[in-house]
Amino acid sequence: MGRTSVDAGDMRWGWTCPLCETDVSVSRDPGSGTFRWECDNGACDAIGFGFSSRRRARLALREYRERYRNIYR
User: For residue 25, which of 52, 53, 56, 47 has the smallest C-alpha distance?
Assistant: First the structure.
């Protein structure tokens, strides 16, 4: 399998939402069998879905956070 060499960070912990700084949960979507991340704040609509693994979902979340931060610099 061709795994990317990008470091996913400490996989024991999640990250925070780029929009509201609330904790983000990563879970398996039972309908599709893929993984998704979703902001735990009920008022925030940030979500990412369709990832093949938890690692890929967390990498995508980190990339999204970095891009979002760079918008307002």
Answer: 47
